[in-house]
Structures are given as structure tokens and as C-alpha cells.
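Recap for those who missed Tuesday's class. We walked through two folding examples back to back. For each one, the amino acid string is listed first and its predicted C-alpha cells come directly after. Nothing is annotated here on purpose, so try labeling regions yourself before you check the end of the notes.
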Amino acid sequence: MKLKTFSLLLIALLTGSQGMGQNTTMAIAWPDWMPSISGTIRAKGEYQPNENEGRFEVRNARVAFDGKIIPSVVYKAEIDFSDEGRIRMLDAYAGLKPLTGLTLRLGQMRVPFSIDAHRSPHVQYFANRSFIAKQVGDVRDVGFAVTYKFKDCPLTLEGGFFNGSGLTDQKDYWTKSLNFSAKVNYQPFKVLTLQASMQKISPTGGNVWLYDGGATLHTGHWTLEAEYLRKHYENTSFDDVNALDAFVAYDVPTKKVFRNVRFLTRFDMMDDHSDGVATEDGTIALTDGARKRITGGVTLSLAGPLQADLRLNYEKYFYDNIELAKPSERDKAVVELMIHF
């Protein structure tokens, strides 16, 4: 939704009675730098049958402003007013487009890494993110990033250097070893996208290297995707982590209340995982226990000018050690309504 569109409609409503019956034309010169406004609201209810417990949650209430000062100078600011009850500034960067296909960004942004971890909430396939996107490979940081899209080749290169401080520890954060990330996106055919990425992060427990690769296939009504991630801790401070995410989706277009019905199933897994933060005695502790999960569900996309999806999912967990299961990481039924404008 464009802010200029909203404002023009408002002005038209306010001045409509004055212009009724008159052959006059009102021309408004709107500044090119005015931002586009978009937003996502995700509200859901969850029930864990084994514990006989449930909850309601506002997962996201995001608003984003993005635009350009001139064609070669762009900007974006995105804030989440309810990220599981917290207010978080997500994106806040300025960018330059000095050449066709080349974009330079400086500020706060999602690090170019992974497939599922890089998805915005309104384009997620399931109500809850994969283990790769939530626990193992999800990184937002402050830094400098470069993107280059080749004109005559379906290839996109991304990379950047980042503080490693996260989103909230910026003022007094100084480092002699910046984090970096690089990503390659190649589309050899219209229906197939291949991606590979690597990243170095520097938590207090020592350097950690992440390697990720995957493929997405869209053919007819089908979408198939598989992604694999390996996380390596230097000096064998923690065993390497393997994580996998694979899903299949089938779309059925309809013409009445729902414009599309999507059936989905997913398998994802992860080994014992640590975020790499050192404890008081200098060791690296376990953050998330090893697990596997099967998710099944259906997404009902409501007909209308805006995107509105009703996501119905059931998640079945399998733990190597059930005592490591966190309160919100257990078998559950999920009902989520996602609205994007």
C-alpha cells in the first residue's frame, strides 16, 4: 500500500463534495521520496495436547517504510511492535544503487544467509519457522552489504560484513574481527532456484562457521524445497550441528470464499545445538536439544485485494532426550491468521 495512494484517497473524500458537478481537475505533485508502507500481523492460538495447555499470541505486528530519495538512493525502516510481546527495530538502513544491478546497503538488516531464515513472515509456508530459520541460522545484524544481480544471467551475489553485536548492542561495541556472510542465488530454469551461502559469526565462545545450501522447485501446483545447514565450532568447542528442512506444498486455486487452498507437509531436524555464547567457566553450553519434527497443515488464502492467510498446522516432535524439550517446543496444534498489506 502506497502512502501517496492513501493520502490521495483521503483528499478525494474530503474534497469530493466541493468538486461535485464541476468540470475541474485537481493535480497533485507528490514527492518521489514518500515511502511505501507495508505491514504484517500474525495472531495465533496454540494447543499442546500432551500437556493439555494452550495460549494465544501475537507473533508479529510489523510495519515497514521503504522508498527512494532519488533513483540511486534508497532506504528502509521496519519495526515489529509485537515480536512475541516485545518491540524490536528490525531493518534500518540506507542504500545506494550506483550501477544497474548493484545495491549497497549500510545499517541494520537481515544477514544474507539461508533460504528459510531469510523469508519474511508473510511469505512463510508454515505458521512456525523451521529449526534452521529459528534456532540455527537466523541472524540480523548491523553492517555493510552488497548485492549484485547480473543482467544477462539469472545469478545474484550477496555479501557483507557485520558487527556481530546483534540489534541492541551497538553504542559501545568495538571489534577486531567482523563477521561476514556470502550468498549465491542461481536460477538455471524458471521453475528452479538454487542457493548456497556461508557465514562466520563470533560469539563469546569462539568463531563459528555456517554452511548452507538448498533448492526450491515450483512446477504447476507443486512447490518442493530442501535445505541443509552445517554449523562448525572452531577448536572443537562443540560438536558440529547438522540441520535439515524439507517440505512439499500443493496449491488448489478456488473461486469463492478462498482464492487458494494449500496443502503442506514438512520434515525438519537438528542436532544438539549451541548459540556459541561462553558460560562463566569458559565452556559452551547446550542451547537446544536434538530433535526431529513432522508438520502437516493447510493454508486457506482468503479472496480479497490484500493477502490474508488462515494457517492450520499440527506439529509432531521427536526428541533424543525429552527432558531437553522447552515449554514451547512440544507437540502442538496451531491456528494462525496472517494479514499482509
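Example two. Treat it independently of the first, because the proteins are unrelated.
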Amino acid sequence: MLSFETFTAFFAASFILALAPGPDNIFVLTQSAMHGRKAGIIITLGLCTGLVFHTAAVTLGIAALLQASAIAFTFLKIAGACYLLYLAWQAFHSSAAEINFQKTHNLGSWQACRRGIIMNITNPKVSIFFMAYLPQFADPGRGSVAVQIMLLGLVFIAATLLVFGTISLLAGFAGNRLNRSKKVQRLINRIAGIVFAGLAIKLATAHR
């Protein structure tokens, strides 16, 4: 089992990492501003569901395959980049009439959750990061390393929920105010489209 010192050190490090600007928290920020706090929180839950997948992948050794296989890494990063470009296209082609204040909250719960899951699972760098990060805090002398890695993954998810949930609430509140203006609605969508396209390019050009 994890010692208290390991738990606190890992949680603090994970909290700081979640705060650092990156594709996932920028994704939560823009989606919360566009679709509201509820959608942002559900997307956060979807992202964390993806983190469960990555934690299990590291535990089972699948992440090692991603690191060793250029084909697997390339397939996942291209799939993730294509999905981000699709979201960018949607944002650029949304008119003010299509994103009025009432309709911005019509993003279904499953649709929002699915966005978060796909966004996270299709980023192979998360598995590789987990493979490098989680084992550093596991101690073979304290029991099963696999169990420890699973626990560390859950702690990381808790830190992510705390940070991303706060981002969702703050961005959602700002989005509720801004979405009342059609001009600002269009501006938010254009900015979101640029962000998604930028993230897609960054993911597509990522190296192992």
C-alpha cells in the first residue's frame, strides 16, 4: 500500500500537473464556455474515464507497446487529431442562431462524456506519461506494484477532477454571461475552433 508521504507528494505533484496548461484543461475550458458548466463537468468525467483506461494500460503493460510500436502510436495520435479537427470544423461553422443561450446547453450528457473520453483515450502521450510517471511512486517493498499503480492512477484522477471541475465551473459561469451576446457567441466559437485546430496540429506532430 502507499505510504502517507508518498500519497501527499504524489497528489501535490498531480495537482500541479493538472493546473499546467495542456490539451485536456484547455479542452474543458473552451467546452465549458461554449456549452455551460454541466457540459464541462460531464466532459471532465469523460476525460477521467479515459485516465482509468490509461492507468489500466500502464498496469497491464499496453503503454509499453505504444512506446515500442510506431504504428500504434501514429494511429492513435492521427485519430485524436482528426477528432479535434472535426470539433474545430463544427465550431467554425456554428452561427449565432445555432448557439443561442438556450441551445448552448443542449449538448447531451452522453455526447459531452464521449467527447471527453475520445479526447483522452486517443492521446497516446497520456499512456506514455503515465508509464513514466506512476511507477516512480511505487515501492515493490510495500506490496503489489500493479495495485500501487492503480491506486496512484485513482489519486491522479481525483486531482484532475478537482482542478478540471473548478475550471468547468468558472468557465461555465463566464460562458453563461458571454453567450447572451450573438457577437460574442461567434467570437467564442471562432476562438474554440482555433484552439481545437492548434491542439490537433500539436497532437499530430507529437513524437514518441
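Answers for example two:
The CA atoms of residues 1 and 144 lie 8 Å apart.
The chain has one domain: 23-204.
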